[in-house]
Design a protein that fits this description.
The chain is an alpha+beta fold and 122 residues long. It has a domain of 82 residues: Sandwich (Immunoglobulin-like), CATH 2.60.40. The chain has one helix and eight strands. The longest helix is centred in the N-terminal third of the chain and has 23 residues. It starts with a helix and ends with a strand.
Length: 122
Amino acid sequence: MKEKFTHSKWLVLPAVLMVFLAFSSCKKESSPSGDGSQLEFVNLVAEKDTIVVQEVTKVKATVNGENLTYTWKCDNELGVIDGSGAEILFTICHAGKFKITCDVKDNNNHQATKDVYITTVE
């Protein structure tokens, strides 16, 4: 009887050791789902933040990521946004301070938004 116990002890020990090594070598992925890239909205800058009425200024978004979609809007319906992508042109026909918003999305459902303010004077 002692012999059977000794043999089974030697059979169980390697099996337990193999299971322990198998689980300890597993590694959980910490990267986000998708292709692993992260959307990072670095900055939103107007070439000129003060312009004369009806003058045009360039607004540029710097964004790190892949497969990006840009949506631009002005807080005043009279603001004119011309262009698309990471760079647009902005003008407006009256004086004031206006907020330009850029919303960026990628294919992994990440989203980031930034605002820039442009003042127009007569």
